[in-house]
Amino acid sequence: MTVSIRLQIKTLYKDLSLKEQAIADYVLENPSKVCHSSISDLSSDLGIADSTFFQFTKKLGYNGFKDFKMAMLMQESELAALSIHENIEKADNELTIAQKVFDSIMTTLTDTRKLLKEEDLQKAAAMINESNRLFFFGVGGSEIVATDAYHKFLRSSISVFHSADFHIQLMEAAVLTPDDCAFFISHTGKSRETIELANVAKSNGAKIIVVTSHAASPLAKLGDVVLISISQEIEFRSEALSSRIAQLSILDSLYVIVMFLNREKAQRSIAKIRRSISTAKET
Fold first, then answer.
1. Among 38, 146, 152, 220, whose Cα sits 20 to 30 Å from the Cα of 161?
2. What is the pTM (predicted TM-score) of this model?
3. How many separate domains does the chain show?
4. Which residues 6+ apart lie within 8 Å of 56 measured at CB?
5. Residues 144 and 273 in one domain
6. Model confidence over 115-143: pLDDT tens digits?
7. Are residues 255 and 144 in the same domain?
8. What is the CATH classification number for the domain harbouring 273?
9. What is the pLDDT of residues 183-215, one digit of tens each?
10. Confidence bin at 234 (pLDDT 50/70/90)
11. Among residues 32, 64, 80, which one ends one of the domains?
12. CA 252 to CA 153: how far, in whole Å?
């Protein structure tokens, strides 16, 4: 599936220079004009050199402006129907606000699904299956996602580990081996602590899977597999909160894939857990 220009821009936006972000905003706000203008006209509107706009298109993965413009023409109707932000209005009532939050979440999930690649999911599942131990790492809001993934994968036949404490995570990263697999979760991909953990894991030869919203981030560059979660912004609700829903869905998907690939072992493991926790439930 071809990734749309809008999604390409969102995954790279925070890694763009200020001038490149201005170009990105202009493209998303004026898709029809971009589709039907020359690079000189657009550069003049933005007050930049033609070469700056040209390099922006290269950063998005196109051969140049002509290639970029052709893609824009093919996606013009989609781009014209979308805006960069979906803001809460002062006059919105409680139901409207809630509906906008739900709309934002649904857009986040749809966008993230478009970015999923079969080869990445296959590789990630194989890395998990072939590992002796599976570790989940994350700090701050990403730690919540790591804990949820740990809770799910405990039902599998894989030895799985996670700690909420950063110092213990550092110790876990220090004892990783080439036979282990480590998940690193970070919305920005720029969390100093998470990058430190990933560097320690990398130095020990562990297989690394990264879940982040920014494909060009420092953390993404450390991953053997990188799974991208797109987030949708609305006022009073940060991108990180929105991306959490997408990240949970990515990890849920991998959990189901891994369990399906190991169906017999998974069923035995789930049966053991169900028997164990049944005694703690009221009858």
1. 220
2. 0.77
3. 2
4. 16, 20, 23, 24
5. yes
6. 899 999 999 999 999 999 999 999 988 99
7. yes
8. 3.40.50.10490
9. 999 988 999 999 999 999 999 999 999 999 888
10. very low
11. 80
12. 9
